[in-house]
């Protein structure tokens, strides 16, 4: 997978950056440096193109995921992360995902499909990856969800549903609400950074 790796001063912690639709591996690097300037950065570009725009998995329509492709691409990403940890000599068990929109959805899918795939996750405007499935234990896994009260893509009920599923699996979930839509605001970034410093530093 196309990616950028930057070695940090803290070799134990790696931030996995997962962009939104139409973004690329450069998008979230400034955000990552704001959250933890000492961590390694592994920023990945999605392998799927939709009208020329990179994504991490296919969709059938706005808000309707291609579940078969989602499952395949989640496995592909999980495999890549294991190989990257070996190649760049970082601890896979200390990986924290930072995802926005489509990137947050594939990060959520990692949590839904692979036990211990992530130490923690910051999910900006995620949706429920899949419904009515058993997901692995997330006991003690801190998860931040950033959401917009007026988000037309990810409605508030979707956010509550995702939080409930993650909590039922043992995840320690915090929801931060913004009175905005689907965009990622500076105040939401600040809230995620403060949460990270409290929970993980």
From TrEMBL:
<feature type="domain" description="Dienelactone hydrolase">
    <location>
        <begin position="83"/>
        <end position="186"/>
    </location>
</feature>
<dbReference type="InterPro" id="IPR029058">
    <property type="entry name" value="AB_hydrolase_fold"/>
</dbReference>
<dbReference type="GO" id="GO:0016787">
    <property type="term" value="F:hydrolase activity"/>
</dbReference>
<dbReference type="InterPro" id="IPR002925">
    <property type="entry name" value="Dienelactn_hydro"/>
</dbReference>
<dbReference type="Pfam" id="PF01738">
    <property type="entry name" value="DLH"/>
</dbReference>
<protein>
    <submittedName>
        <fullName>Carboxylesterase</fullName>
    </submittedName>
</protein>
């Amino acid at each position: 997978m196309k990616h950028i790796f930057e070695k940090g001063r803290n070799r134990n912690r790696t931030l996995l950056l997962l962009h939104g639709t139409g973004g690329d591996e450069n998008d979230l690097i400034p955000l990552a440096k704001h959250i933890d300037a000492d961590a390694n950065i592994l920023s990945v570009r999605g392998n799927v193109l939709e009208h020329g725009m990179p994504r991490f998995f296919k969709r059938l329509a706005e808000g309707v995921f291609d579940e078969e492709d989602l499952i395949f691409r989640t496995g592909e990403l999980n495999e890549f992360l294991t190989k990257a940890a070996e190649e760049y000599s970082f601890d896979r068990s200390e990986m924290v995902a930072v995802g926005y929109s489509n990137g947050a959805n594939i990060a959520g899918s990692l949590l839904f499909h692979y036990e211990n795939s992530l130490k923690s996750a910051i999910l900006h405007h995620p949706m429920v990856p899949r419904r009515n499935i058993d997901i692995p234990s997330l006991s003690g896994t801190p998860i931040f969800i950033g959401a917009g009260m007026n988000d037309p893509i990810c409605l508030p009920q979707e956010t509550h549903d995702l939080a409930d599923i993650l909590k039922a699996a043992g995840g320690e979930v915090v929801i931060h609400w913004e009175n905005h839509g689907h965009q990622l605001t500076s105040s939401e970034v600040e809230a995620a950074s403060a949460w990270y410093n409290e929970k993980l530093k």
